[in-house]
User: What shape does this take?
Amino acid sequence: MYTTLFLLTTFATYAACVPADVVNWYTISYWTPPDSKGFVHFSGNMEIPKLPHAGVYYLWPGLQETKNIGVYQEVLDGTNGAWWFAPGWYTNDTMRPSSFTWAGKQEPWGRGFSVQEGDVVSFNNTYAGSNAGGWFGNVGDSKNRASASTDFAISNYEFNQALFAIELHNQTWDFGPLKFSRINMQALGNDTSWCTSTPPTDGATKFTISGVKASILPNNAASIGRGASSYLDKTVVSCSIDSLIMEAPTKPAISGQKVNGTTEARRRRRTQIDW
Assistant: This one.
């Protein structure tokens, strides 16, 4: 049985004299079949909800690594009282280069920009291949003509889970629905059931999904970078979803453990600079 409990325990993060932290999770997950080599593309749009007040709100789509040691994500962050949207690779894999280390953990964050309620932002993650830097990430806001791109050297990881997540630190779900649209997920293989079946959730989220379509593509029609030469003979399942809405909580969320100032809490510290 699939579970999202790894999210509560796997990712240790920065903490330096932070107050007690309770993390509430709401998630919808798509998992690739066991015989797949994982996702190679994940894109879509997200509508920016209201931000009731400054607080540690993290709303994100992301790809989860198969061994549960990292997540490649685009995070909408409300910590400073205004929404900020940026991609990042978050992992506790200590084997990564020290240049990726911050506060003892691996946390390279990409370029991002400020957004406001009602904006519709795009996210696009594409496997470019080990010869082309790994993964290419792009975020955009066409209304405000903002965009940012970042390469992540993470080609040695496989991703078997696509997540839509609401991560709340000492906050409640008080911002209304979180709406995603024009979603496209592509994974190696020819089994479409992971796309067309009802996705696993945390059990605490009311949601609606519409316009689901699965198709099998030859590799040369998939959204894979030219550097991914090792996958040229593979077929790819393309999963398109018109709309996925995380509407509201149905019961108390899965909660992280309370921690004190001497225990690491899931807190990201980003340098928020417009590029």
